[in-house]
Amino acid sequence: MTENKEESSCDGQCSSCPSAANCNDPQKAASGIQSKVQMNVKNVILVLSGKGGVGKSTVATNLAMALSNKGYNTGLADLDIHGPNIPKMLGIEDQKLGSYDGKTIEPVKVSGKLGVVSMAFLLPDTSSPVVWRGAMKNTAIKQFLEDVNWGELDYLVVDLPPGTGDEALSVAQLAPNIAGAVIVTTPQDVAILDSSKSVKFIEKLGLKVLGIIENMSGLVCPHCGDVIDLFGRGGGEKAAKELNVPYLGSIPIDPDMRIAGDEGKPFILKRDGSEQNKVTWQHVDEVMENILKQIDN
Ligand SMILES: Nc1ncnc2c1ncn2[C@@H]1O[C@H](COP(=O)(O)OP(=O)(O)OP(=O)(O)O)[C@@H](O)[C@H]1O
């Protein structure tokens, strides 16, 4: 009842609306409140999911690394303010953000082609929590986009926390040239249900869904090569069909993928031409190519 009443009295003027902060319509909440920041980037790629722990940071890290290895100037913005894991996955968790002029923030450089920002670089230690409300997170995100010396970026990959909260809304409002969003899911029904929400959220914001990735899709037994459907398989593709968005492919559960994350050496860097992980490599390559194809479309 209340929701209908609010909807009928909405005049679309979010900046003067007393309920803007609690508005449950992302398009209204995101419209007219903030303008885009000035930054020199050709394509911003958002990586999000409805559920936690499905592999967003793993996908974002490997995607950014793959793009920079192809020669693109790439930025990786870890906007998971409360749970920043990207530095750990890149083995750079001891680094801090610096500044030469006291105004512009220098990203942590992983290579000449890849710079990273993360809340983790600002915390005193890895166990310190960030206790911030939406407005503070919004300010931090604005600074991570606008005040960082990114240079001229071909791609900025943005890793977001699970769900459709403040961080996702802020970056959708603030970032220029958003090519679209990659939605990561696992194959179970609950994860698929939550990723449908992510798809609808992105569409409501008027952004492009680049597609759905099904991560942790079956486990290839290292002994016999058989596939064990630990969390099931095919749910991501089914969801993509039902939601009428592209399916970007699947990535199997691979213990080496987890080890790569824990060791701070992204999986994508560990290709050694051996037969080991061949199946996983094929899947990862296909997913990365499909993302780029969607951006080129
Ligand atoms: N395909 C995979 N095979 C094996 N392990 C994986 C795979 N994908 C991700 N992992 C591991 O699963 C864990 C969770 O992954 P990750 O941190 O990328 O998820 P997330 O969605 O970003 O999590 P959060 O919601 O907490 O931000 C990590 O330890 C990661 O190394």
TrEMBL record:
Q: Could you name the domain of life of the organism this protein comes from? A: Archaea
What's the protein called, per UniProt?
Iron-sulfur cluster carrier protein
Under Gene3D superfamilies, the record lists: P-loop containing nucleotide triphosphate hydrolases (3.40.50.300)
Q: Listed GO molecular functions?
A: ATP binding; ATP hydrolysis activity; ATP-dependent FeS chaperone activity; iron-sulfur cluster binding; metal ion binding
Which residues does the annotation say bind ATP? 50-57
InterPro entries attached here?
A: Mrp-like_CS, Mrp/NBP35_ATP-bd, P-loop_NTPase, YlxH/NBP35
Record keywords: ATP-binding, Hydrolase, Iron, Iron-sulfur, Metal-binding, Nucleotide-binding
Entry keyword Transit peptide? no
Indicate the quaternary assembly: Homodimer.
| Alphabetical list of PANTHER family matching this protein | CYTOSOLIC FE-S CLUSTER ASSEMBLY FACTOR NUBP2, NUCLEOTIDE-BINDING PROTEIN NBP35 YEAST -RELATED
Q: Cellular component GO terms, alphabetically?
A: cytosol
Q: What Gene Ontology biological process does one annotation of this record name?
A: iron-sulfur cluster assembly
What does the record give as the function of this protein? Binds and transfers iron-sulfur (Fe-S) clusters to target apoproteins. Can hydrolyze ATP.
**Keyword Hydrolase in annotation:** yes
Concerning HAMAP family, the annotation shows: Mrp_NBP35
The record's listing under SUPFAM superfamilies reads:
P-loop containing nucleoside triphosphate hydrolases
Entry-linked Pfam families: ParA
UniProt lists the family membership as follows:
Belongs to the Mrp/NBP35 ATP-binding proteins family.
